Amino acid sequence: MPTFAAEACSLSIEGFSLAYGGKPALRDLTLQIPRHRVTAFIGPSGCGKSTLLRAINRLHDLNESARAEGRIALEGRDIHDPKLDVSELRRRVGMVFQTPNPFPMSIYENVAFGLRLQKRLPKRQRDDRIEWALSAAALWDEVKDRLHRSAWQLSGGQQQRLVIARTLAVEPEVLLLDEPASALDPISTLKIEELIRNLKSQLTLILVTHNMQQAARVSDYTAFLQQGALVEYGSTDQVFTNPRLQRTEDYITGRLS
Ligand SMILES: Nc1ncnc2c1ncn2[C@@H]1O[C@H](COP(=O)(O)OP(=O)(O)OP(=O)(O)O)[C@@H](O)[C@H]1O
């Protein structure tokens, strides 16, 4: 199990469990997520990948039947600390979902949206931040001449990069990606993968994917979950080329779905 020195560790998950209506979805998970790396969560459908991802920015708070136990610390601070501001946590830990969900407004306003909630910036600075976020999401060149057109005119792949730009605009430290390319065509998927690899110089990324080639291509570390438990966690190289457990090998090679 990889462990990281405090200065290299973004998130530390310790004895974390979560149940929906008394039914366990995550069981006593302990793992550390390294800073400025891509970590993939893989495992069969229903094993708890999305539940774990969402727990990192406390989305389970919105579900009355969900009960969490244990600790998740971001930069050493427990995210369940009652003194912690949840909206600030969600700014620091951004999330991108499977289906691109741009708001029904212009490309510019989509990226400005979170920024406006966070703080009032003078227009010049806001424009600079929007250009920066769209560039970081590898979309600027494609949209710079039509910033005030509807976001819904973009292709699915462009919409997903716009959603990533919207998330980046508020300068998160961690980006959670829940199957971000599964609704996209192969070319758009490769663009998202390249983007993920490039973004790790700026922030920590966690990727949920069903696509084993994708996990192998973009992630540095891979955690394999089964029935809510962490089965194997290691460098992606090790997990994919020399898995410690037969169950991991069976899943990676498609013998277990
Ligand atoms: N909102 C919810 N209410 C009740 N049960 C839920 C809820 N969300 C997930 N579950 C259950 O928790 C377990 C883990 O689900 P989760 O969506 O985290 O798995 P997953 O590995 O991401 O699955 P998939 O790959 O199919 O998206 C499953 O048994 C699921 O039915």
From TrEMBL:
Keywords (A to Z) from UniProt: ATP-binding, Cell inner membrane, Cell membrane, Membrane, Nucleotide-binding, Phosphate transport, Translocase, Transport
ABC transporter domain mapped to chain residues: 11-252
SMART domains, alphabetized: AAA
CDD domains: ABC_PstB_phosphate_transporter
Listed GO MF terms: ATP binding
InterPro entries: AAA+_ATPase, ABC_transporter-like_ATP-bd, ABC_transporter-like_CS, P-loop_NTPase, PstB-like
Pfam family, one: ABC_tran
Organism superkingdom: Bacteria
PANTHER family documented for this protein: ABC TRANSPORTER I FAMILY MEMBER 17, IRON EXPORT ATP-BINDING PROTEIN FETA-RELATED
Official protein name in the record: Phosphate ABC transporter ATP-binding protein PstB
Provenance organism: Halomonas dongshanensis
